[in-house]
């Protein structure tokens, strides 16, 4: 963070706000499990059985040879412990027409620094741990809708429920969708804009437009079934100290302890649409 302080001579007391986006990833994740009191969570999954032919003539074990039902587990350890801190000196604030208000600057940093960083991290995990991959090649307005629907069909082949799917698509690819022959004149996209950047629906999927800079390199879109991943936030803590020892003014502190995990048993509830096959 730059430490330059620009003193006011004759200037407006109004501060120019930055552009900001609401979270693109909130609401995608399961809240069935939590990390309360632990750093590492172990989730168990029961094994599935083998289907046998019932034997009517066997003297014993007509259903098959019994064996104890096994299980596997997935272990998830929290890794993202992030923070920031800054001061607003009382003298500097006075010489700058009091343009730096602790509450307002804190919110601005959460909106413009924390939320984008968390979104980018979550998208990188979803892409890396996706259980399905669809190679799109270079998409055009002529084939993009068919490409996305074909990818969604691959999820259906894996029995992923239709309800609860979200399409996260790069801004540059979303433009092609809007201009496609299948969409033009039938404005199912962009009809409403609500929280988290939802832009209507496509093939029964909620559509969220993501800045190109947020999406992992080579990834054009992600289809995520809500609940296929976890995004625990153990700590989201901020403090504004007034005149703490050593500072005449405000000391602002922020900490967020979070992570993102894809459930092994539901990994096929996430599909990455990539330009070329991922190694």
Structure in words:
The chain has one domain. It starts with 39 loop residues before the first strand and ends in a 5-residue tail after the last strand. The chain is built from 4 helices and 14 strands. A 7-stranded mixed sheet has the order 4-14-9-5-8-7-6, sandwiched between helices. It has a 3-stranded antiparallel sheet with strand order 3-12-11. A two-stranded antiparallel sheet has the order 1-2. By secondary structure, the chain is α+β, with helices and mostly antiparallel strands. The radius of gyration is 25 Å and the shape is flat. This is Phage major capsid protein. It comes from Dysosmobacter acutus.
Layout: helices, strands, pairs:
Blueprint: E1 40-46, E2 71-77, E3 80-89, H1 90-95, H2 102-129, E4 132-135, H3 144-157, E5 165-170, H4 171-179, E6 189-193, E7 198-202, E8 205-210, E9 219-225, E10 229-230, E11 233-242, E12 249-258, E13 261-262, E14 270-274
């Amino acid at each position: 963070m730059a430490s330059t302080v620009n003193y006011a001579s004759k200037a407006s007391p109004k501060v120019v706000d930055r552009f900001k986006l609401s979270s693109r990833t909130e609401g995608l994740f399961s809240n069935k499990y939590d990390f309360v009191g632990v750093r590492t969570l172990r989730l168990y999954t029961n094994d599935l059985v083998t289907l046998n032919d019932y034997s009517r003539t066997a003297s014993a074990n007509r259903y098959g040879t019994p064996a104890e039902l096994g299980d596997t587990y997935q272990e998830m350890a929290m890794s993202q412990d992030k923070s920031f801190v800054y001061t607003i000196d009382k003298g500097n604030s006075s010489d700058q027409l009091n343009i730096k208000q602790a509450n307002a600057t804190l919110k601005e940093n959460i909106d413009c620094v924390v939320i984008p960083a968390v979104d980018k991290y979550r998208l990188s995990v979803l892409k890396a741990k996706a259980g399905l991959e669809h190679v799109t090649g270079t998409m055009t307005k002529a084939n993009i809708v068919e490409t996305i629907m074909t990818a969604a069909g691959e999820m259906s082949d894996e029995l992923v429920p239709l309800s609860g799917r979200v399409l996260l698509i790069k801004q540059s690819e979303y433009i092609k969708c809007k201009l496609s022959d299948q969409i033009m004149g039938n404005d199912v996209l962009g009809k409403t804009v609500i929280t988290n950047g939802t832009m209507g629906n496509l093939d029964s999927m909620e559509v969220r437009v993501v800045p190109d800079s947020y999406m992992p390199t080579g990834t054009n879109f992600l289809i995520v079934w809500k609940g296929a991943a976890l995004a625990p936030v153990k700590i989201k803590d901020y403090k504004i100290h007034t005149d703490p020892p050593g500072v005449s003014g405000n000391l602002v502190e922020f900490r967020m302890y979070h992570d993102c995990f894809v459930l092994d048993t539901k990994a096929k509830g996430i599909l990455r649409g990539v330009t070329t096959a991922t190694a």
